[in-house]
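User: For a benchmark we're assembling, each entry needs the component sequences followed by a predicted structure for the full assembly. Here are entry 17's components. Please fill in the structure.
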Amino acid sequence: MNELAAAALSVSLAAATPVESVTKARTVSAEDVRSVAPALERYTQEALVGDVWKRPGLSARDRSLVTVAALIARNQTVGMPHYFRLALDNGVTPAELSETITHMAFYTGWPNAMGAVGVARDIFAERGIGPDQLPKAAPELMPIEPVGEAARATSVHQNVGPVSEGLVKYTGELLFHDLWLRPDLAPRDRSLITVTALIANGQVAQITFHLNRAMDNGLTQPQMSEVLAQVAFYAGWPNAMSAVPVVKDVFEKRSASK
Amino acid sequence: MNELAAAALSVSLAAATPVESVTKARTVSAEDVRSVAPALERYTQEALVGDVWKRPGLSARDRSLVTVAALIARNQTVGMPHYFRLALDNGVTPAELSETITHMAFYTGWPNAMGAVGVARDIFAERGIGPDQLPKAAPELMPIEPVGEAARATSVHQNVGPVSEGLVKYTGELLFHDLWLRPDLAPRDRSLITVTALIANGQVAQITFHLNRAMDNGLTQPQMSEVLAQVAFYAGWPNAMSAVPVVKDVFEKRSASK
Amino acid sequence: MNELAAAALSVSLAAATPVESVTKARTVSAEDVRSVAPALERYTQEALVGDVWKRPGLSARDRSLVTVAALIARNQTVGMPHYFRLALDNGVTPAELSETITHMAFYTGWPNAMGAVGVARDIFAERGIGPDQLPKAAPELMPIEPVGEAARATSVHQNVGPVSEGLVKYTGELLFHDLWLRPDLAPRDRSLITVTALIANGQVAQITFHLNRAMDNGLTQPQMSEVLAQVAFYAGWPNAMSAVPVVKDVFEKRSASK
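Assistant: Structure for entry 17:
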């Protein structure tokens, strides 16, 4: 039984496997949902698939990025195969999905990114996505925006410096002078998935900085409004509702300062 | 090996499987716990199983609802088979468990509910629970309570309206004019699992509204006190302790207003 | 197929299995990471493995305790086999790992501890770690520190008493008069994993009490600074950043009171 066990285990954690098996295993079918909660299947078809995903104000591509970010942020690997494939079908490039996983390692933790790697590996294999379609490990970085970065660095130095020099060091060197400057995911998209992750995990205290950065990077207020509705379904109403006062405050302060 | 792989995978993610295999696979035995942490097994038997679950003030049926809600809220599928079965044994009806899963989709996120569906599907199959015992997808709804709903709608319109019209729309149409009015789970029980989910996920900012609603729906103060103790074991002490000041404030304001 | 299903399932959820299979199944290889996100593999090797883990100020043994606590706190079982083995290799004793799992049951929830049991069981079996190397279920407890305990008991009685007598009872009897006095994990180490769990789960409101207790128990300010950097990688930057103001406040108040 050892050989069987080894096979079963390596498979059950999504080592390279045929498409059908991954598909079969990692999705709960509409029939399954009907057999347990007929109302949930109705809400899924009528409200979520039939309405939310089709709303104007946020593209299906952006809704896919938001949904993928919410799943990685909450380490929900079972739903990933479906939504990773949907993201690729909706126009998220393999390079962008790759960068999303790397970005999420910093904003939701290394283990969350590793869980996403296990799923993406199979989907890239099933779709014949090879190294030529992936970002370089160390590409030429985009230029840094000096004014905003100076303000950020000063703030982190003053607030975090007295508490953890290591945290200050890595925040500067790895995140803002490397990760955020990588060219294969637009700053606006990095901000979109970062804000999504913060809302999906209830990290309200970090939203103000990153939502302002997101809007500086081009995320519009109508898009952000739709992000809240999308995240409500995938991370639960309480996380969306807890984000509302902070988002409202950012919207108001930015319109006042115009 | 593809056939084996497919079988292993579809099984390991709880596609229809025999009772024995699900039971065996998804529980950590007392012997396992003793072999790793003898003290944990002692606390489990003496304190949790032998004392907490038998405390007066909250019925075993309600403790099961609370525990199931905490597991779904935290997406802990491994513990679900045991506690879903225990809930049914303790008097939670299949229709109530079905509605609990649907309710949790909105309050803890769609993927959490889908994880619960995968487990409930097997248990319903093993117990021969068919469509006749499940709620209708679109039953006749209970009448809405106009005064409280008007206050809620006004508050959401004022606070959420400027931030996300979509969130306002779905909160009204799907949650308070549909989900909460479904007849197969009592409003008091919907409130019980909602408050449990908020505490289990540390969503303190949402407790005041839902605890007041819960007590309006018939949840008593002694029952709520026991919910906190039950959740402490299943979601950890810090989540229970972080909820205490808010629960205390609600208790005090309600007794003062009498 | 029942036999196969049973085998696959019991294996895929880590019932006793051969070393190789667990190892193979539960780790995402460096090659896997490169095939999806080359940059993530670079950050892992250069920054995390090559730099963070080698920083002075916190020993590899303590970093292992912190990482194990973060994984259990977030219920990330897939990463546990690697980091449980690394912890044992870095000098965490089997008894200390056993006590860590028991301690986490109270501070992160019973299901989290049970998930860790399923992994530790296999690793203890693979390394021939038997009952003789584990803590007693009910050993002679260390003496309680009367002054601090009196202050804690009074505070809990006043703040939690009016809300949940059950929570007051178990907090005293099980946590502070039993768990914390168990001799097989030093109070300083219990504090280290407790503070880590609070940061990893964003439970900021509970940090002040436990960080002061940790420093009373011997955790130094430089060590705590490194804990924040370590947790940032394993639980995500936002959780570390949200903890910073509270940690800063504790540091300042303690140095002022000297």
